[in-house]
Model the fold of this input.
Amino acid sequence: MRALHSLRGRLIALVIALLAIVIGGIAVVSTGVVHYEIRKLEVHRTLVGEKLDAGAAVREYFQLHRSWTGVQPSLEQAARSAGSDVALFDGQRRLVATAPRTFRPSRIEVTRDGALTYEQKTAGGRSRRMLRGPQLVIRDGRGAEVGFLFVLPEESKPDLAPRRTV
Done:
């Protein structure tokens, strides 16, 4: 009888421990998703606000020219409208241009999962940052992805302290 109570107690403790692990895992994942969605909403409000669509100039440029050659003025306009640095990549995730021209990362790339990573020189050395997902996917007339526009957060300005120095 005592062995049965001991086994029952152990099983209950095991179930409680498993539930705690599952609930903790869900909390961690959902927190990451919420932070990502909040960032996406902030950028969406900047890019596609009620009064202004900062990415429209870049999208319209590609629709008109079917090429990224000469896109810099349209990208500069998007950066001014968004009030932040922007980076444009083509459909193969190669860097096309950044704006304003003063934004010069030493290394910038888009990973396969769509995250932007870049390094900048700062007053304290270099900082490495990551931004999840493009804020505007530019498509051609058939729906193929031909460009990705990233609006960098305000803390990307070089005069601010880096998050992480390398």
